[in-house]
Design a protein that fits this description.
The complex is a heterotrimer of chains A (about 260), B (about 375) and C (about 325). Chain A has about 260 residues and is α/β, with parallel strands linked by helices. Chain A is about 30% helix and about 30% strand. Chain A has a single domain, classed as Rossmann fold. Chain A contains six helices and 13 strands. In chain A, the strands form two sheets. In chain A, strands 9-8-7-10-6-1-4-5-11 form a nine-stranded mixed beta sheet, sandwiched between helices. In chain A, a hairpin with a 3-residue loop joins strand 8 and strand 9. In chain A, helix 2 crosses helix 5. Chain B has three domains: about 110 residues, Butyryl-Coa Dehydrogenase, subunit A, domain 1; about 110 residues, Butyryl-CoA Dehydrogenase, subunit A, domain 2, CATH 2.40.110; about 150 residues, Up-down Bundle (Butyryl-CoA Dehydrogenase, subunit A, domain 3), CATH 1.20.140.10. Chain C folds into two domains: about 180 residues, Rossmann fold (3-Layer(aba) Sandwich); about 120 residues, Rossmann fold. The longest helix of chain C is centred in the first third of the chain and has 16 residues. The relative contact order of chain C is 0.11. Classes of the chains: A alpha/beta (about 260), B alpha+beta (about 375), C alpha/beta (about 325). Chains in contact: A-B, A-C, B-C. At the A-C interface, helix 3, helix 4, strand 7, strand 9 and strand 12 of A face helix 3, helix 4, strand 7, strand 9 and strand 10 of C.
């Protein structure tokens, strides 16, 4: 089985601030990590590989430091990595992100299953997976929390708000996975030591035959007019003070007054 | 930073740090109250830590002294017990690695990597620093094997280990040079594991008495050459002492971090107590001492990796670290005021954990002998 | 073909088993607002797909649709990503709406990106506000980083401008019974997707009521150090006659199911009382609960944003305060108070 798993590098926190002078995001001192749901995707890919055999390729698009998440994917057990790094790819919206990722998949070729995390925790659009699938003309199954293979088909369980659905999808197909699916494994130190010796590719937009009109800002129908911090709400907060026991007592008084106990 | 970590070493460090934060640190208090954590041990095995120091050909990670130092350093930031457990296991496995025959290495090292616990047994109830004072004996038997009698005390991992590397006297007339090392499996007939020692600290490690009553060992239970036991043990302790220095650094940093968070949020006289210099200056001392501990530990590890003899460097690293880590933990406890006396606030546990390191794996006194001997012998 | 040739506001009338999603009505109401701001010339059209769904037109008109496009085909009886995307794409290409709003439901988020890709246009996800600026440009406001940063997005040239919107971001108008409008029946040709088959459907069983139905909630957030601590939060919730909920981080790491998540990307709740425990209070969380009647929070950081929305607060370590509170409540309940 040939599995491609897409991973994104995201900031390790929601506590991002804007520089009051420039209005831009302050990225200093903010650590970057692998999008947690993409780690679930890597784990899903590795479990499938262990069960059914095959290879797992990790793919990411970003500036050179995005390589860190590919290293993590390799250290978890992926067989090779592809980094799409090119100034021309920068400033892209979701359409202009899904397109080069799809072109990379095309260049790799011969894939059976593409795996994405359900969404990235910074922007949460959940669009990249379906866009890749649309460009490649393959079916998609989103919100998957378990998957097995039956011949040419992937058998997926989807988690919907009120029900579980089992979907049989013919491969090649793309699935997006939820955090409930698995617990991503720790990269073992042994795998870490092997990781950097695995095949690692860095491609630019020409390597993957991108139409220049469809990448970067030029290829992005959406544009960001401005970013801003939301207005803060203001509530008069009554604070409980003192030692723990005093606080507990005062809170209980309030709960009684509100007829909660 | 004197030591430049490679890409892989940074990844190992980050992974060990994450593992410690998620899996080890939350269990430290439980281990203090309940002892060895078998569930955590399984996770440590699954995450591949047991065989870091062992070459790849035996299923290990092929890691260097820097690699192992990185890992115990990170582990210790969550639990001194867990770091000590792992260090003791590696030390014992190292004995097989450096002194075993090909057959012994092929038999035991893959097991050490796969998760079988090893323990290193030198100390006895009446002989610690004076190794030649051990009373355990191993006598050749008619069939070429050995008969082991005696006992051990204060052996880390005893009671949970699968294999013990036991040092016993094979020729009392030769003193230190009459000691040999033997590989003893846990199910050997005549091996009795006594009660668990109720320790002041590192209570998450298993420490018991062992008794040997005419244990019959095959000829190939002898590890290394007859009479080499003491020298083998001392060399193994060099590595152990480097790890302990790193463990002290980790425990100290943990204590300092807890104290820092407390000092930044505890309000007294209208401000966080961190605003008072009497307290904040303490952190300057702590941070500086911790940095020195780290540097000494990693420098000694680098020396070990380069193949040079690192006995004095390891001793210096451990001496400094043991002395300062206990004081740092006590200072951190002081920052917490009355709350520092409560088990809920953790720091008292670090004080109890840190206390052992001026004694275990070479007392401060022995280390001073080693270091001063080296200094005074210089031309 | 330029953007001036595109006109009208579309709302995807998501339906399941013949029942329209309530979000559709919310979007129809907002469309009326947008229509006014855009000068009043854009027709508001609801687009509904299915096997026999023309019976839904009446309801759509009553909530504000001026026109309904009904696309019926046996192969559209059940939702399937590619056939639905294909039909919506063809309809959009034919009718050229300027704006296309969809609910940010499982179905909406599944099909919208495929349509957007087919049309090579822009799709703004999870908009929390829609407006028209001084130059007559349609602007969408979206959250990033859990809502701590907001963006104003516009899709300058491509059409339609597609947007998904979460439930309860907007409010529906009062339905006007008997409202009427134009119905266009599109006899679409679409094959079933043989590659995608739903073979089994099992209803989900949840512990407790949906959090949006709860009067009392106790919620845990990123500051909860140990999964085991959720037990004591649950106990506290029960003592108050309520249920356990959470902020996004606890759902993201799987400690609680997504259904228990309060916030922009989870569920909006309006309980009588909510206790936030170890929750920093990101914008996306606040957006999901700020209308609660009585808001109390426990957090060990004096500067956390959660205080901006809290009526009562305790700057404390929850691992100490919550057990003390549970003990105190039990004491009072057993009459020792």
């Amino acid at each position: 089985m040939k599995i491609l798993v897409f991973v994104k590098q995201v900031p390790d926190t929601d506590d991002v601030k804007l520089d009051p002078r420039t209005g831009n995001l302050m990225r200093d001192g903010v650590e970057s990590v692998i999008n947690p749901l993409d780690a679930n995707g890597v784990e899903a890919a590795l479990e499938l590989k262990e069960k059914y055999g095959g290879t797992v390729t990790a793919i990411s698009m970003g500036p050179p430091q995005a390589d860190d998440v590919l290293k993590k994917a390799l250290a978890m057990g992926c067989d090779e990595s592809v980094l799409l790094s090119d100034r021309a790819l920068g400033g892209a919206d979701t359409l202009a992100t899904g397109y080069p990722l799809a072109k990379a998949a095309e260049k790799i070729g011969g894939y059976d299953l593409l795996i994405c995390g359900r969404h990235a925790v910074d922007a949460e659009t959940a669009q990249t997976g379906p866009i890749i699938a649309a460009f490649l003309g393959i079916p998609q199954v989103t919100l998957v929390d378990s998957v097995s293979i039956d011949g040419e088909y992937a058998v997926c369980r989807r988690v919907l708000p009120d029900r579980f659905e089992t979907v049989r999808v013919k491969m090649p197909a793309l699935i997006t996975v939820c955090s409930e699916m698995n617990t991503p494994r720790y990269p073992t130190p042994i795998n870490i030591m092997k990781a950097l010796r695995k095949p690692r590719y860095v491609w630019n937009s020409r390597d993957i035959n991108c139409d220049p009109e469809m990448i970067g800002a030029a290829g992005s129908p959406s544009s960001n007019k401005e970013i801003f911090e939301p207005p803060k709400r203001n509530t008069d907060t009554r604070y409980f003070t003192g030692e723990i026991e005093e606080m507990a007592s005062a809170i209980a008084d309030t709960l009684e007054a509100e007829k909660l106990i | 930073m004197l030591i430049n970590l490679t890409e892989e070493q940074k990844m190992i460090r980050d992974m060990a740090r994450e593992f410690t934060k998620n899996e080890i640190e939350p269990r430290d208090k439980w281990m203090d109250e309940n002892g060895f954590d078998f569930d955590l041990y399984k996770k440590v095995v699954d995450a591949g830590f047991m065989g870091i120091n062992i070459p790849e050909e035996y299923g290990g990670g092929g890691g260097s002294a820097i690699d192992t130092t990185i890992i115990v350093h990170e582990f210790a930031k969550g639990s001194a017990s867990e770091a000590t457990f792992l260090d003791a296991h590696w030390m014992a496995a190292d004995l097989v690695l450096f002194h075993g025959t090909d057959d012994q290495k092929k038999k035991y090292l893959p097991q050490a990597c796969a998760g079988k616990i090893f323990a290193f047994g030198l100390t006895e109830a009446s002989a610690g620093s004076d190794a030649a004072g051990i009373k355990s004996t191993a006598v050749r038997s008619a069939d070429g094997g050995w008969v082991l009698n005696g006992g051990k005390a204060w052996i880390t991992n005893s009671g949970v280990a699968d294999y013990y590397i036991i040092l016993a006297m094979t020729d009392a007339s030769k003193g230190n040079h009459g000691i040999s090392a033997f590989i003893v499996p846990k199910d050997a007939e005549g091996l009795t594991v006594g009660k668990f020692e109720q320790k002041m600290g590192i209570r998450g490690t298993a420490t018991c008495e062992l008794a040997f009553d005419n244990i019959r060992l095959p000829a190939d239970a002898l590890l290394g050459k007859e009479g080499d036991g003491f020298m083998m043990a001392m060399a193994a302790l060099d590595g152990g002492r480097i790890s302990v220095a790193a463990i002290c650094a980790g425990v100290s940093e943990h204590a300092m971090t807890v104290a820092k968070d407390y000092a930044n949020s505890r309000i007294a006289f209208g401000k966080p107590i961190a605003a008072f210099q009497g307290l904040s200056f303490r952190f300057a001392e702590m941070a500086t001492d911790i940095k020195v501990m780290e540097m000494l530990a990693f420098d000694a590890a680098a020396m070990k990796d380069s193949g040079k003899r690192c006995t004095v460097d390891a001793a210096e690293a451990k001496l400094f670290a043991a002395n300062h880590s206990l004081q740092i933990c006590i200072d951190a406890q002081q920052v917490l005021g009355g709350n520092g006396y409560s088990k809920e606030y953790h720091v008292e546990r670090f004080v109890r954990d840190a206390r052992i390191f001026s004694v275990a794996e070479g007392t401060n006194e022995i280390l001073r002998m080693i270091i001063s001997g080296s200094v005074l012998a210089k031309k | 073909m330029s953007k001036e040739d595109y006109t009208g506001i579309w709302v995807y009338a998501e339906q399941e088993k013949g029942v329209l999603s309530k979000t559709v009505f919310e979007l129809l109401a907002k469309s009326a607002d947008l229509k006014k701001k855009l000068g009043g010339r854009d027709e508001i059209t609801a687009v509904v797909l299915g096997k026999s769904v023309s019976g839904l037109c009446g309801e759509l008109f009553s909530y504000g649709a001026e026109k309904v496009i009904v696309a019926e085909n046996d192969n559209l009886a059940e939702y399937s990503p590619r056939p639905y995307a294909k039909v919506l794409t063809a309809l959009a290409e034919k009718y050229k709406p300027s704006i296309f709003l969809l609910p940010a439901s499982a179905q909406g988020r599944d099909v919208a990106p495929r349509v957007m890709c087919n049309l090579r246009t822009g799709l703004t996800a999870d908009a929390i506000d829609l407006d028209v600026d001084g130059e007559g440009v349609f602007v969408q406001t979206t959250p990033n980083f859990g809502g701590n940063i907001l963006s104003h997005i516009c899709i300058k040239e491509r059409r339609p401008q597609m947007v998904t919107v979460h439930p309860k971001v907007f409010s529906p108008n009062e339905p006007v019974p008997g409202a009427a409008g134009k119905v266009i029946t599109e006899k679409v040709e679409v094959e079933a997707d043989d590659c995608y088959t739903v073979t089994d459907v099992t209803p989900r069983v949840f512990e407790g009521k949906p959090i949006s139905d709860c009067d009392v909630l106790v919620a845990g957030g990123r500051g909860i150090k140990d999964e085991g601590d959720l037990r004591m939060l649950s106990e506290l919730a029960q003592l108050l006659g309520g249920e356990l909920a959470c902020a996004r981080p606890l759902a993201d790491c799987g400690w609680l199911p997504h259904e228990k998540q309060i916030g922009q990307s989870g569920t909006t709740v309006k309980p009588r009382f909510i206790l936030n425990t170890a929750i920093s209070g990101s914008v996306q969380y606040q957006a999901g609960m700020h209308d609660a009647n009585c808001i109390m929070s426990i957090n060990h950081t004096a500067g956390a944003p959660i205080w901006d929305v809290s009526h009562y607060g305790a700057v404390a370590d929850y691992t100490k305060l919550v057990p003390a509170l549970i003990a105190e409540i039990k004491r009072r309940k057993s009459g020792n108070g």
